[in-house]
Amino acid sequence: MKSFTFYLLVVFMALFSSFAFATDPGSLQDFCVAAENPNHAVFVNGLFCKDPNLVVADDFYLSRFNKPGVITNPVGSIVTLDNVFIIPGLNTLGLSVARVDYAPKGVNPPHTHPRATEVLTVMEGTLRVGFVTSNPDNKLFTKLIYKGDVFVFPQGLIHYQMNVGKTPAIAISFLSSQNPGVNRIGDAVFGSKPFIDDYVLTKAFQVDKKLVDILHSQCV
Hints:
By secondary structure, the protein is of the alpha+beta class. It has helices at 2-21, 185-190, 198-205, 209-219, and strands at residues 77-82, 96-102, 107-112, 118-124, 127-132, 140-145, 150-153, 158-163, 169-175, 183-184. The strands form 2 sheets. The protein has a 5-stranded antiparallel sheet with strand order 1-2-9-4-7, with no helix packed on it.
């Protein structure tokens, strides 16, 4: 009886360990349609690995965060993202980094990163930051943060930053994906190509078609 019990325990542990490690990898792109023809397929992360014998230090290096971004848009901010397509050495490391420049009163509008948690550090200035939880609560977590402060935006949640000062502000963000993706809410909803049907948007936001058309024109 003891040997039978021991046998069941071994089988259970073997099955449990199989289930524990049989998980899907994290997504590195918006979708991955199965290809019937292998000749039409690509790697999931879209990149091959360089021969280790050909790797050089510059594969892990970039020098462009020492210059402020040029802000020309009406929202008053610009994001300079360095992901795997900019720094090849990030491939498979699950990390990206970005510099965000804000004009006085500039805003990094509400957006999401579908594949990454973001850790933001203020380098200069003062920011009002926040994120909103998912349904049904839609609770806003917001805080005023200063130079040297850190704030975390959980993966996939809508978040934003606003420079509340009278001088330019700078932040550095680290994201937990080599290709975190970004969905700016306004651009995604009112600037999609082709446009989402006006009837859907007027119903969803309870506004008239004229306002929807105005928002369309702002996102083109």
